[in-house]
Amino acid sequence: MATTITLPAYAKLNLALYVLGLREDGYHEIVSVVQGIDLADEVSVTKREDKNITVETTRPDVPAGEKNIAYKTAAVMQSLFDIPYGFDIFIEKSIPPESGLGGGSSDAAAVIMAINQLSSLGLGYGKMAKIGAGLGSDVPFFFSTGSALVSGRGEKVKDIKLPFGYTVIIVKPDIGISTEWAYENLKNSLTKPSLDVNFASLWGETFFRFLREEARNSFEPVVFSHYPELRRIKHRLEETGVVHAGLAGSGSALFAICSDSSQAYTIMKRFKEYYKDVFLCNPLAFRF
């Protein structure tokens, strides 16, 4: 029986993100079209002989130990299923932190899946997603097929079909934005968007028309007012003729959708001259 499981923890892209309002429980109600992309961390989980849990990462700006969501995830799994041993968790980071790409949440989902396999728990995706919802609002998405309509506070995930015929450019400047900061500041400028979109039929040209004409991110006004450099990056991406450009989640990464991969490569090389974290990515399915 395996004592170590290594899994990819893929990033996510909120192609559109609408924050509808503040709920009575203190969370915000959202609707988001979310797609997995092939930018990924690598998460290795190893059984220990004692019940201790350790977490190490390859980035100094990502916390290790108890401050990392992977630690809390392992502790929750250990407690829920009375697992009599601990885990060493090692995270090879590729997804930039505080970028809006879901790196921490994806790492948590990978830890759940790895412990499920290591401990022969036999959990299905639905059960793992429910456990993930207690750890963070973005975690349940990572148990979807990779293309989903996400609602509620993030815990309601409905698989949808989205086309894959495009390339994604990610630009992450040297700015970090925590999700907590973004939501706290959103309270002061919250506007309820009008939604008249059939999210179940975003296919073919309808998908690209949706991106060009209707896709929005409710965080952009407040984030751009505090960090004007991010607005400038979005405008520079738009000026290259991409299908759509926008803020990734609550930021601080920006993304652009290109229908032509050679155009995307040219744009990526141009932005690499100014920013360290620039990635060329593709949409992918987590499972079929």
Question: Would you write up a description of this structure?
Answer:
With 288 residues, the chain is of the alpha+beta class. The protein folds into two domains: 156 residues, Ribosomal Protein S5, domain 2; 115 residues, GHMP kinase, C-terminal domain (Alpha-Beta Plaits), CATH 3.30.70.890. It is 30% helix and 28% strand. It has eight helices and ten strands. The strands form two sheets. Strands 1, 2, 3, 4, 5 and 6 form a six-stranded mixed beta sheet that branches. A four-stranded antiparallel beta sheet has the order 8-9-7-10. Strand 1 and strand 2 form a beta hairpin. Helix 2 crosses helix 3 and helix 6 packs across helix 7. The longest helix has 16 residues. The relative contact order is 0.18.
Short précis:
Helices cover 30% and strands 28% of the residues. The protein is an alpha+beta fold. Strand 3, helix 1 and strand 4 form a beta-alpha-beta unit.
What keywords describe this structure?
288 residues; alpha+beta; Ribosomal Protein S5, domain 2; Alpha-Beta Plaits; four-stranded antiparallel sheet; 8 helices; 30% helix
Helix content range: 25-40%
- Main sheet makeup: 6 strands, mixed
Name the average pLDDT.
Answer: 93
Output the CATH class name of the largest domain.
Alpha Beta
Give the low-confidence spans. Answer: none
Radius of gyration: 19 Å
CATH architecture of the largest domain: 2-Layer Sandwich
C-alpha end-to-end distance: 26 Å
* Total discrete domains: 2
What structural class do helix, strand and pairing data support?
A: alpha+beta
Shape type: globular
If you consult CATH, what is the topology of the largest domain? Ribosomal Protein S5, domain 2
Q: H/E order of the elements?
A: EEEHEHHEEEHHHHEEHE
Number of beta-strand segments: 10
Count of individual helical segments: 8
Sheet-strand content, in percent, reads 25-35%
